[in-house]
């Protein structure tokens, strides 16, 4: 998956998280979506790094 796919996946995860846990938190909808995007991209980078390490062995 490309970086755009991970960003879209994170955006969807953020939207779903906000729908599941609505409330008056400080960040609101925008921050929840940004956190979802960042989490998806960082997770993808970590997973791809681990798979590359495993393939070298």
TrEMBL record:
Main location: membrane
Record keywords: Cell membrane, Membrane, Transmembrane, Transmembrane helix
Domain of life: Bacteria
Signal peptide: none
This protein's GO CC annotations: plasma membrane
Topology of the protein relative to the lipid bilayer: Multi-pass membrane protein
Subcellular location, record wording: Cell membrane
Transmembrane segment boundaries: 27-54
InterPro entries noted in UniProt: Transgly_assoc (IPR007341)
Family to which this protein belongs: Belongs to the UPF0410 family.
PANTHER family the UniProt entry points to: UPF0410 PROTEIN YMGE
The protein, known as: GlsB/YeaQ/YmgE family stress response membrane protein
